[in-house]
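Treating backbone geometry as a discrete language has practical consequences that deserve illustration. In the encoding step, the backbone of a single protein was reduced to a row of integers, each denoting a local shape. The amino acid sequence and the backbone structure tokens for this protein are reproduced below.
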Amino acid sequence: MASGAGHCTPRHRHLITLCEGDGTLLDWDTGTADFTFGLRHRVVNGTDVLAFWGELDAWADQELAPRVTALLDRVGLQVVADLRMVTFMDAGGLRLLVRIRRQVIRNEGSLWLVPGSARNWRLLRITSLDRAFTVPACAPTPCVRTGTTSGYS
């Protein structure tokens, strides 16, 4: 680890872990640092939320696909792919979303997509993938009690 970098211990060695103190992102399996993309998983009201951030491109697809596949084998039947923090997406990012959709359907689950930006919407529309995903009517709402997301209204 670079000098001056904060110490970060991963909870799950097979997942990408952020060291938020200095912004260092480290893949504990390969030792590769400084990713321009990432994935955070959390459970909200029994729904597994896959929150992507950064640039979803061919490199992100290559790095995240095995982790997403392993994660989807363990999660529940309700999955949300949240793209609100995605700053760029190309065919590689679309390929990752299609992989997720196929695996969720194969597991007889439900997948919702939160595209976020107008740019992501436009990309889904021009590729006709907007018809392949279920999109909630609105974004997650903050939960007054805990400050976490409470689901979709």
Notes: DSSP finds three helices and six strands in the chain.
